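Open question from group meeting: does this chain pack into something compact, or does most of it stay loose? Before anyone orders reagents, we agreed to write out a predicted structure and look at it together. Recording both the input and the output here so the notebook holds the full record.
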Amino acid sequence: MSFLHGEYFWYLIITWALVGIFLYRQRKHFETFIRRYWNHRFSIGRFLSFFPYWLAFLFMFLGVLDLREQPKSMQGQIPEQKTIILLDTSASMLVEDVRPNRLKKAIWLTKHFVKHAPGHQVSIMVFSDMVKKLVPFTGDMDLIMGRLSSLEELDIKAAGSNLSMALMESLQYFKTSAGTNEKVQGNLLVITDAEENADQMDLNIPDTISVAMVGVGTLKGGPIPLRDKNGYFSGNKKFAGEVVISKLDEDQMKSFSSKIKSFKYWIATSYSLPTDDILSFFSQAHQQRNFLGTVVVREVKSHYLVLIGLAFFLLAIFLRYFKSYVPLACLLFGCYVSQMMAQEPEPVDPLKKQYEEKIKDLEGKIKTLEAHPSEKLKLAEYYLRAGDAAKSLMLLDENLDENKVDDLLEHPDAFTNKGTALIKQKK
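Structure tokens returned:
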């Protein structure tokens, strides 16, 4: 074993020695003062407590040097998951055919993905008629969330969309982040309405890049609302005097499956978040293309030094205050024993025990599908009498229909029990 920052060893030893000498001199000066003016001598325990206290400082100081085992080389799979999120910020993303609009929905989807993607180095890029890197590859979630929140106030009234160009330009960031001998690989998550306002480019996406596309919007589409900086509506976007209707282009999304080997798409509605499916898709593709590499491991051992220092520190406290701890420990132990002797066993309610036995019998019948509907209602009553109003209410809801007159006439007690259970549940 060796210290990772061993070059500072002697500096720490000298500092520790100087601190010890200073503390010892101050301690002797204080004891001399007390003995001279108060005629009081400190106990042997207080004198001995200084040495473990000083040793505690030593091991705490050594822990800072980061003690590690000798390096070990091992072959293993190197799990590098780098994910670029391409976020569409064209004017069509202002359409409100999903709540609250396509852009805010896309931002929420991005935030949800980032929160549930540990182990991914994430980069955020936005595109319309041009591509801009918003966040470089990072695992800093606070940075990503802050940059994404700033997009909600983005003024994008006149921006078009060039999806093909954005896909090709994003590949350059994978190449610059990889080393010279490393294979370019990663994940590309595109959140867009798939509208293409420019001529399509020839796509050449490597097989080592997985592309997931999330379509935001509806096939019916909607107009593009124009709002001022305070959010007030000022009309819909028009072209040649006609209101522009923007629709989710699912055919465009399907066309990418023939151009990209590792490709999959989803359509997000107002209430759907396909994060888990996307992560599963990325994970499967990543496992298939993992490559072997050499990993150098040095196991950390510095925490043992800190634990030894803590043990010496506790020993110093014990030696210094030994006389005070003995009567205090005896007092606490005596209070605990007297409290235990004064406690009376909790009385057993015979009725509650009886209900629990009946509940057990009826639950067994229900599990074997032998219970009559009236027995299920009886079980709900026993639940209620045993104090479990939640289970009682659940069983009554399953077996009673308030809209059926026959149920009301045949089981009036069950409806009374349901009312009681609702009251106990504060409903």
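Observations to bring back to the group:
DSSP finds 15 helices and 16 strands in the chain.
The longest strand covers residues 81-88.
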